[in-house]
Specification:
This protein is mainly β and 118 residues long. Helices cover 0% and strands 57% of the residues. A hairpin with a 6-residue loop joins strand 4 and strand 5.
Length: 118
C-alpha cells in the first residue's frame, strides 16, 4: 500500500505564489512518474504537470511557464511551485504516483485546496 499526502494549499491573491508538496510513503518501487492534477468545482479532474522517473517534465498549456514540478527521490517527495497564480487556478490539487514497468499501478492523494482570490 502507498500513501500520498499533499500539503501547502491555501488562499492566495492573484499574482501570488504557493508551493505544494506531496510526500509518498509505503511500498514504493519502480516509480514511473509522479504528477499533479486538479479539479475545480463542477469540472472534471484535469492534468497539471508530471515528472517522469528520468527527470523529464510535461505541463498543461494553461500552467506552462508559471508552474514548476520537481521531485526529491529520497525521500519520495514531489513539489509544485506555482507562480503568477490566477483565479482560474482555484481547485483541489491531487498528486498521483504511477509505478511498475508499464506504469500499471496508480495511487492518488486526498487533495489540497488552492484558492486564488482577492
Amino acid at each position: 500500500q502507498v500513501q500520498l499526502v499533499e500539503s501547502g494549499g491555501g488562499l492566495v491573491q492573484p499574482g501570488g505564489s504557493l508551493r505544494l508538496s506531496c510526500a509518498a510513503s509505503g511500498y514504493i518501487f519502480s516509480v514511473y512518474s509522479m504528477g499533479w492534477y486538479r479539479q475545480a468545482p463542477g469540472k472534471q479532474r484535469e492534468f497539471v504537470a508530471v515528472i517522469i522517473s528520468g527527470g523529464s517534465t510535461n505541463y498543461a498549456d494553461s500552467v506552462n511557464g508559471r508552474f514548476t514540478i520537481s521531485r526529491d527521490n529520497a525521500p519520495n517527495t514531489m513539489y509544485l511551485q506555482m507562480n503568477s497564480l490566477k483565479p482560474e487556478d482555484t481547485a483541489v490539487y491531487y498528486c498521483q504516483i504511477r509505478m511498475g514497468v508499464t506504469a500499471q499501478i496508480e495511487y492518488w492523494g486526498q487533495g489540497t485546496q488552492v484558492t486564488v482570490s482577492s
